[in-house]
Design goal:
Blueprint: H1 8-16, H2 41-44, E1 63-64, E2 67-68, H3 74-83, H4 86-103, E3 109-112, H5 117-123, H6 127-139, E4 148-150, H7 162-169, E5 173-175, E6 185-193, H8 197-208, E7 213-221
Parallel strand pairs: 1-7, 2-7, 3-6, 6-7
Antiparallel strand pairs: 4-5
Helix pairs in contact: 3-4, 4-6
Pfam families: Pribosyltran (PF00156)
InterPro entries: ComF/GntX_DNA_util-trans (IPR051910), PRTase-like (IPR029057), PRTase_dom (IPR000836)
Protein name: ComF family protein
């Protein structure tokens, strides 16, 4: 009779570092899913694409965000953004990837929306890059994290008028590796979609450098 193998490494990892629910942060231990939050996901999940007409997204083909930036998804997004919680990023990336596949986007490379180096140093990590890497694992696509560069720090977009949003980002981004995007179908990735102006400005730069087209995916979208 064949003996059943036991994964001691996995057992010890869960014992010492028990997994938590990505939504409510409840310790799961050896239970694979949160009985409280898992049933809520189908109701919270957005199936439709982001309407381009409601955001400043004229340079993009289509945009998708699986969840709305409100409870219960607001807390996990903030934990991912400010504490670099990879488990939460993987959770969001799974649903971002599901939306990309269902939409049938013909993308072949992922480009994260760049942060200014000073912001990365202050936070200790690059949030959009980590989300891009998590999504790349799901979609089996390369990440070109040096394609775009943010040249200077900008004000928070949601605090500005529509006209001020455009001038706030004018000249903020530049393509520093045109050979990495020329002729390619880009999937731009960020954590939150608010006004859409940031994604749109990045897409404009990439298209100007020869990218064939740009799509966008974020973890959440504001209403």
């Amino acid at each position: 009779m064949k003996e059943m193998s036991f994964d001691w490494i996995d057992f010890l990892q869960k014992l010492i570092f028990p997994p938590r629910c990505p939504v409510c942060s409840r310790v799961l231990g050896f239970v694979p899913e949160c009985e409280r939050c898992t049933p809520l996901i189908p109701r919270l999940l957005r199936r439709e694409l982001v309407p381009l007409s409601l955001h400043t997204l004229s340079m993009l083909e289509q945009v998708y965000a699986p969840f709305v930036y409100q409870p219960p998804m607001k807390k996990p997004l903030l934990l991912a953004k400010y504490e670099a919680r990879r488990d939460i990023m993987r959770f969001f990336a799974e649903y971002m990837a599901q939306g990309v596949r269902e939409a049938g986007w013909p993308v072949d490379v992922i480009v994260p929306v760049p942060s200014h180096p000073a912001s990365v140093r202050r936070r200790g990590h690059d949030t959009a890059l980590l989300f891009a890497q998590a999504l790349a694992e799901q979609l089996h696509l390369p990440v070109e994290d040096q394609a775009l560069k943010k040249l200077y720090q900008t004000k928070e977009q949601h605090t500005l008028s529509e006209q001020a949003r455009q001038s706030n980002l004018l000249g903020a981004f530049a393509v520093q590796a045109p050979q990495a995007v020329r002729g390619r179908r880009i999937l731009l990735v960020d954590d939150v979609l608010t006004t859409g102006a940031t994604l749109n400005e990045c897409a404009k730069m990439l298209l100007g450098a020869g990218a064939e087209c740009c799509y966008g995916a974020t973890a959440v979208v504001t209403e």
